[in-house]
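Dear U.,

For the methods section draft, I wanted the exact inputs and outputs in one place so we can describe them consistently. I've listed the two proteins in the order they'll appear in the manuscript figures. Please don't edit the token lines directly; just add comments below if something needs changing.

First protein:
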Amino acid sequence: MSVLLCNGQPADAAALAALAQVNYGHFTAFASREGTVRGLDLHLRRLREGTQALFGVELDEARVRADLRTALAAAGQRDAWLRISVFSRAFDFRAPLAPVPVDLLVSIAALSPAPASPMRVRPVVFRRHRPELKHVATFPLFDLRRQAMADGWDDAVFTSDDGQLIEGTTWNLGLWDGRQVIWPSGRALRGTCEQLLREGLAAIGIAQSEVPVRLGELGGFAAAFACNARGAWPLAAIGSRVFDEGATDPLIQIVVRALETQPWQPI
């Protein structure tokens, strides 16, 4: 089922080498079901804003949609996992302000679900470079996840130097104090799923707020969850703070119900 297209055509070695060797660009990824995407407008906005920030040019939304439809047709599937990366074979790091045309790399793979079991995550002091952008500099994210797993954890969660929680390696963090969902504040990549959940929680009448939360304050929370474009899943522990399944299961039911209020939008 794997398909890889560049500007609507099968990707060649030159296109892949340009992205891999320069490693300058940004992307978004999401699930398509029957040719529709939950939060597609958010993904398109992310792509437009990232292209303007990194290349100083406008990205044509119609072009993005057309390339996504072409990739789905090439795969012969309407249920798939898609990733679209924006880069430029003409980009020269020696003259980064020069206007250049952008290339779109679309990959398709089989759908993969969110983690089935609650995760134990290790706090790590780390802050992304330009966290507001979903850029392709993913090495530290995957390296810190790998180190955590090598030490017996399931993943890592990032904190500031003073212990303020920020985000996970590839996911956002939500906390439950028994009355409302708390989104730890800080300079994080605010994912599409988090944005959809904020809207969905409001729609079903669940209170929420965004405030600073430090590791030492986790004792005041009953449960926690992670979320990204694959969905939402529970956290069993953040560092030494272990969460009770009795509080976690009802929270996940709330989160799933909130997410289901958000519509699937046609590509």
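Second protein (the one for the lower panel):
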Amino acid sequence: MKVARWWALAGSAGLVVSMGAMAGPASAAARPAPAPQRTALRGSLTPAVERSRPAGSVAATSSVSFDLVLSLRNASGAQAFVRAVSTPGSAAFHKYLSDAQWESRFGPTRAEVTRAESWLRSEGLKVGSVPTDRLFVTASGSARSVERAFGVTLGYYMVTATR
């Protein structure tokens, strides 16, 4: 399995954004109530949130580029496959999937990508490229558009290093 697949699996566990579920801002005090059709994703905050303090706001007209990470299809099955292919003694040990097999078995569908692209455009954002594995959609727009689309307030933060 290619390194990109490992990254995708790990990334999907930590940062999964799917249609109908958008992450809220960092702190509970600053978190507005989710809009009626939005749900704050459990576990989507990073540990750095606890060590950060506000350091300024982002101008509404600032340009923001980001990747909308899509959910793996059958994420638990993907995790089980990764465990099996990596475990000595397993019947699947070192029996890797080709890129095409991985994508057809676990990757987001073309329909999911199309829905994500349509939603981004409907929010006034510019849609960029989509890699062949369809794990994310690149997008950009003004800070105001991103804030409105995701129900967040963008800001700059100072993060204290840990020892």
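Candidate sentences for the figure legend, describing the second protein: Residues 1-32 have pLDDT under 50 and may be disordered. The longest strand covers residues 63-69.

Thanks,
Y.
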